[in-house]
Write a structure and sequence with these properties.
The structure holds 4 protein chains of 4 kinds. By secondary structure, chain B is of the alpha/beta class. Chain B has helices at residues 2-34, 51-68, 84-96, 109-122, 135-139, 151-162, 175-190, 209-217, 230-242, 258-264, 283-296, 303-323, 327-336; strands spanning 38-44, 73-79, 102-105, 125-128, 144-146, 167-172, 197-201, 222-226, 248-251, 272-275, 339-341, 344-346, 359-364, 367-370. Chain D is mostly helical. In chain D, helix 1 (2-27) crosses helix 11.
Chain lengths: 293, 373, 251, 288
């Protein structure tokens, strides 16, 4: 039983990490950036490629290869995130596109990105690993956690903590929150909203690559994971409260735990039903989610 | 009123585009008849979850064709997207427009079952190396052949191996998984053994730790993974080892191949596989896998289906040489053939099912080695 | 007997008292002005009457019937219509369709009516229908029937909104700043339309900032400030009251 | 020529679904992504009735459509409480729940193995094994659908639902019971989706949950958006294009190694470009 909770928290941690990025973008530009899942997976593929390059040709260690790959691909994908806003979404918004047409456009982008990944990296699954040997998890309180999971937990906690600090302590952080609250007002007060949106897209894409690469440790990489991830992220962000950072954290964890308990008691084939049942219930009972007023 | 004029122009262009495309369709048909090249069809999952195995099939056909040196034969590859409507369209196009007499393919039973009425009506031979669902034996019809053995043979072998042990079954919630699972349960019941755990997971599931937790609590001695996706097989076994489940692992035919070993890596050690055709003891198989790796710079996602598809192409070539390119003649010829293929001696019974029997193999330091029962 | 009775309704949005036990009556056939500084709660009053927002306390009676808790559409069905502050007609449908929607006699709209035999407008409806056609030409919208409403100018949009009010043939009409943003000759046209309405026995509640128009049109004036009624009477006496002047000068 | 006839049949069935979706999304502004689920319920309803109860084609199809209507009536209560993007999301949630019911309610739907050998329909004794007769059946039903929806959208009722699309609050102010209209629009749209589903099932003679998952709903939405919101002719052309073009791409002779992915990329580009240049679609009058 406790093991199921542990599994839920670890998966939930990853969902939370991605949902934070997703909510950040939503609060800045007010629409669901569906292609966000594919951006993260693209970044994870980059991490895989860099790690393979370092490990096989440069003879570097798996872990150093992974960390270096993570850093490089997060920055590169962060740039990509900015370009996506600047050349794809902003012209649409300037053209007077409504929220609904922005969602439809971003779904189109998701399909394009997913198939580009399929073309470039091929359809077969790729694996990122940190050690040659599959090591058995460490036992404590009748639950076992593997090395990867511990790393995921640590990185999730650290990035959530650093992110909260960044958001509330630094100037840019407050600017992002101001734009999130009310972009017109922020503009009036002199916040350069355009620059803030760039930073938001950079950070969000950075986080999504981080989380997608971590997930790849557990479930390897396939081009179709983008859609799967974004559906989970939407559920988590609605539960937590669309646009709120703390909501993203709680929403992600709740989704992870709910899915795992659903799988445990009803069988894993009902896992998605539990997740989307939760989405429907929250949209009806509390559409603004847990943390929004 | 600009709005209306603009609308009429757009309407007109749209209609001309559609008409042009449709006519385009017909004109290529006329062109085909003039060339005397023999046209074979292939319909399989080139996108979607089974894309990697579909690509294996396609590459195996291309390898066999180049190896045979035949220039008078051309294979038209169509993607079934693992979906009924696309599969039936692909088959209809091949039968109706390309006038093929024989189609290789049919992977996901969605596309297969949607193609069967077209095959039977068009009286074209359908030769599959991927669909193993036992239900096709009855429904296939006289034009349906397959050299991949029906699952009821595999379940027989597996049932004998794991009878009266504490068994945990983890199966994928798709046509292959559920058909195999139900068949296996029936066979196990004959040996009056009932599984201690019976978990089903949706296609595309990636986190199996919670299912495996239930398997752990069921104190099973044997874990049988029933899925035709190499990634799912790999993840289940890897996560089971991470959870410290000490039990014998059994998998099905999609275990042999790079995609599974990449995902499971060293966790694959000691895993039993009930599978067909990846018998590495036969050096023709090794030569083919090596040829595949040299040509495509990566190992096949599944050795079994690559070998079966390779055999299939050679069987079709043999049939055409023997009786000419006519569906009726090929159909009768296939009933009489006993081909010495990489997957073993292949002959077809009256339902078109193949005589090939699955072997029991075991992963020993990265290699699949046959195990004597 | 007064047509509309507001009995000490109050409504606060987390602390801000939008309406604070406000009470007043409007008699049949009267034109009553509602004035007060911005944020005095005028629009909130209209929202409260139409039950767009539910009230914290108090009751509203229309023609003697308690409509406090009724959903918006039955209230409108009883013969009340309201315009929104800078309301424009529905944009992506034609002027004709906008009018049809407001036309009171378009009652039994159901799927059955689509396929059933098309009921011919009774004589009384026919009269009403021709009257609107005339008004359309009068205000210069006669030629724009099939134009998408979004292609009209702001002024023409406001005029169309007034015509929709007339078409609805409602007994009580809540006008929320019908004159705002209009050129002088448009204001004359709207004023004429209001007089026509009043002449045909309609009761009007008019929210407006333009004081001359209020003085010219209204029989009686209610002054609101911070959600409370601070004066109720004819224009002259009310504008002399000290507390009204203070509220406007922002003391 | 069977290939062309089969394409025509699939286009006609897709057009019926697209026109009914346009009635819900284009005319009334209810952004529902669960249309393929009703298409699926219609298909399963008809297929199960045909295979399990031995009913003949016409009663099975009508009953299948009725069942879809009932399910839609229940589903519309939660779905229509929301608007715009949250309605889209709850309808996605509903679609996925229906899909997993199809997948896991094995006793009823035979789960992932789907429903096999659905008999080809017999109407008044004419057996429709011949594709041409089936095409005639589909075209007759398509024409019927067009007439019905044309008549509705041109009638005063049509004006009311267009008014609801524009602004629900204003419509309430004029005394219209907005939720009653939205429910009846949602259910009628679902009924025609069920009809299309029933026709699809008895033509393809095998259905499984895979063909009714999220993607078909999105494809239907693309048909309506491409064709044009609020234009019946537009949705039909959109349906024909989305059904026919990928099949004709088979002739384009693209090397199949990247033909499959490039098809999908073309859809993505169509979606994005449309939202930029013509959000109202080719023939539509209303921007989403």
């Amino acid at each position: 039983m406790f093991q199921v909770l542990v599994n839920g928290i670890i998966v939930g941690g990853i969902y939370a990490l991605i949902t934070i990025g997703f909510n950040l973008i939503y609060s800045a530009v007010r629409f669901y950036h569906l292609a966000y899942g594919a951006v993260g997976i693209l970044g994870a593929y980059l991490t895989y490629q860099i790690q393979k390059f370092i490990f096989e040709t440069q003879g570097g260690g798996l872990i150093t290869g992974f960390l270096l790959g993570l850093l490089i691909s997060s920055i590169v994908t962060g740039m990509l995130g900015i370009l996506i806003w600047k050349f794809l979404y902003r012209p649409l918004r300037k053209n007077g596109a409504s929220n609904v047409s922005m969602i439809v456009a971003s779904f189109g982008l998701l399909i394009i990105l997913q198939n580009l990944i399929g073309l470039i990296f091929g359809q077969s699954a790729k694996t990122i690993r940190l050690s040659e040997v599959t090591t058995q998890g460490y036992e404590f309180l009748s639950a076992s956690i593997t090395k990867n999971q511990i790393l995921i937990l640590i990185v999730t906690l650290v990035s959530v903590f650093v992110f909260e600090l960044f958001l509330h302590r630094t100037k840019i952080g407050t600017a992002i929150r101001a734009v999130g609250q009310n972009s017109q007002l922020a503009a009036v007060v002199g916040v350069k909203t355009e620059k803030v949106i760039y930073i938001t897209f950079f950070i969000a894409s950075f986080l999504s690559v981080l989380a997608s690469s971590l997930i790849a440790l557990e479930i390897s990489l396939k081009p179709t994971y983008g859609l799967m991830l974004i559906l989970k992220v939407i559920v988590a962000s609605i539960i937590g409260g669309i646009g709120s950072m703390r909501g993203a954290l709680v929403g992600g964890l709740m989704l992870g735990v709910a899915e795992n308990f659903g799988a445990y008691y009803f069988g894993s084939q009902w896992q998605d039903t539990v997740a989307f049942g939760l989405l429907v219930i929250f949209l009806l009972v509390r559409p603004q989610g847990l943390f929004k007023k | 009123m600009l709005m209306n004029k603009q609308k009429h122009i757009l309407l007109a262009t749209m209609l001309t585009v559609v008409v042009a495309l449709v006519l385009g369709g017909c004109s290529t048909k006329v062109a085909n008849l003039s060339q005397e090249k023999i046209k074979l069809g292939y319909v399989g999952p080139l996108t979607g979850d089974l894309a990697s195995i579909g690509n294996d099939e396609k590459r195996a056909i291309q390898l066999a064709l180049t190896a045979s040196g035949r220039t008078d034969i051309e294979v038209i590859f169509e993607d079934s997207h693992c979906n009924g409507q696309a599969g039936s369209n692909a088959a209809q196009k091949l039968v109706n427009v390309d006038q093929v007499q024989l189609i290789m393919g049919a992977g996901c039973s969605d596309a297969t079952l949607a193609m069967l009425p077209i095959i039977q009506q068009g009286q074209v031979v359908l030769f599959s190396s991927l669909s193993t669902s036992p239900e096709l034996t009855k429904v296939g019809g006289e034009y349906f052949f397959r050299n991949a053995p029906s699952d009821d043979k595999a379940t027989e072998v597996l049932a004998k191996l794991i009878k009266n042990k504490k068994i945990a079954l983890v199966s994928e919630n798709n046509d292959f998984g559920q058909a195999f699972l139900n068949d296996l349960k029936v066979k196990l019941a004959e040996f009056d053994t009932t599984p201690v755990a019976d978990e089903i997971f949706n296609t595309g599931t990636t986190d199996y730790k919670t299912i495996l937790q239930k398997v752990k609590e069921s104190k099973a001695e044997v874990l049988a993974v029933i899925s035709n996706s190499p990634v799912s097989n790999g993840l289940v076994i890897k996560q089971a080892k991470e959870l410290g489940l000490e039990m014998a692992y059994y998998g099905t035919d999609s275990i042999a191949g790079s995609e599974f070993s990449d995902t499971a890596q060293d966790a694959a050690e000691g895993v039993y596989a009930i599978l067909v055709a990846a018998n590495t003891a036969d050096d023709r198989v090794n030569k083919l896998l090596q040829l595949y790796e040299n040509t495509y710079l990566e190992g096949p996602a599944s050795d079994a289906y690559t070998v079966l598809s390779y055999d299939r192409m050679n069987i079709v070539l043999k049939a055409i040489d023997a009786v000419g390119y006519d569906a009726e003649a090929i159909r009768n010829y296939l009933h009489t053939i006993n081909y010495d293929g990489l997957a073993g001696y292949t002959s077809f019974d009256e339902n078109g099912d193949s005589s090939i029997l699955p072997l029991v193999l075991r992963f020993e330091d990265g290699e699949l080695v046959p195990v004597q029962q | 007997m007064s047509l509309l009775q507001i009995k000490n309704i109050s409504k606060s949005f987390d602390g801000l008292k939008a309406l604070h036990n406000l009470s007043f009556n409007v008699n049949d056939g009267e034109i009553v002005g509602v004035i007060g500084p911005n944020g005095a709660g005028k629009s909130t009053l209209f929202n409260a009457i139409m039950n767009h927002i539910n009230k914290d306390s108090g009751d509203i009676y229309f023609d003697g019937i308690n409509i406090t808790k009724k959903p918006t559409h039955p209230i409108a069905g009883m013969g009340i219509v309201r315009t929104f502050q800078d309301s424009q007609p529905l944009p992506q449908i034609s002027v004709q369709e906008n009018l049809d929607l407001a036309f009171k006699y378009q009652t039994d709209i159901s799927l059955v009516s689509v396929f059933g035999r098309h009921k011919f407008l009774q004589e009384e409806q026919q009269v009403h229908f021709t009257k609107i056609k005339e008004l359309l030409h009068e205000v210069g919208l006669g030629s724009k029937l099939n134009v998408q409403a979004q292609d009209l100018s702001y002024g023409q949009g406001k005029l169309l909104e007034m015509l929709k009010v007339i078409a609805s043939d409602a007994r009580l009409i809540l006008l929320d700043e019908p004159f705002s943003g209009l050129f002088p000759e448009m204001i004359k046209l709207v004023t004429k339309l209001i007089y026509d309405l009043s002449a045909s026995g309609k009761t009007i509640l008019l929210v407006e900032h333009n004081m001359q128009l209020i003085e010219e049109i209204c029989d009686r004036v209610i002054v609101m400030d911070a959600g409370q009624k601070i004066a109720d009477g004819d224009f002259k006496t009310v504008t002399k009251q000290q507390n009204v002047i203070d509220s406007y000068l922002g003391k | 020529m069977d290939f062309i006839v089969q394409l025509a049949i699939y286009s006609a069935i897709a057009s019926i679904a697209a026109v009914s979706l346009n009635y819900v999304v284009g005319f009334t502004g209810i952004m529902s992504i669960s249309h393929a689920s009703f298409y699926g319920i219609g298909a399963y309803g008809t297929a199960l009735l045909l295979t399990k109860t031995g009913l003949s084609f016409v009663p099975a199809l009508l009953l299948g459509v009725l069942i879809t209507g009932l399910v839609a009536a229940f589903a519309s209560v939660p779905i229509l409480r929301l608007r715009e993007d949250s309605l889209m999301l709850v309808s996605v949630g509903f679609a996925l729940i229906i899909h997993s019911l199809m997948l896991n309610w094995q006793s009823l739907t035979n789960g992932p193995r789907g429903v096999k050998s659905i008999p080809r329909p017999e109407i008044f004794g004419i057996s429709l094994t011949d594709k041409n007769f089936y095409l005639v059946l589909c075209l007759v039903l398509l024409v019927l659908t067009i007439i019905i929806f044309y008549k509705i959208t041109k009638s005063p009722y049509g004006t009311v639902i267009k008014g609801i699309r524009e602004n629900e609050e204003v419509m309430k102010n004029y005394g219209y019971n907005v939720s009653k209209y939205k429910h009846s629009v949602f259910v009628l749209g679902a009924i025609f989706a069920g009809l299309a589903g029933g026709l699809f099932a008895s033509y393809i003679q095998y259905i499984s949950p895979e063909s009714f998952i999220l993607l078909p709903s999105v494809f239907m939405l693309i048909m309506v958006i491409l064709g044009g919101m609020g234009s019946i002719g537009g949705s039909i052309i959109g349906a024909i294009l989305i059904t026919v073009i990928p099949e004709l791409m088979r002739f384009a002779g693209l090397p199949s190694s990247f033909a499959a992915e490039s098809n999908q990329i073309v859809y993505g580009i169509i979606l994005f470009a449309l939202m930029y240049w013509r959000p109202q679609g080719l023939f539509g009058k209303y921007k989403i």
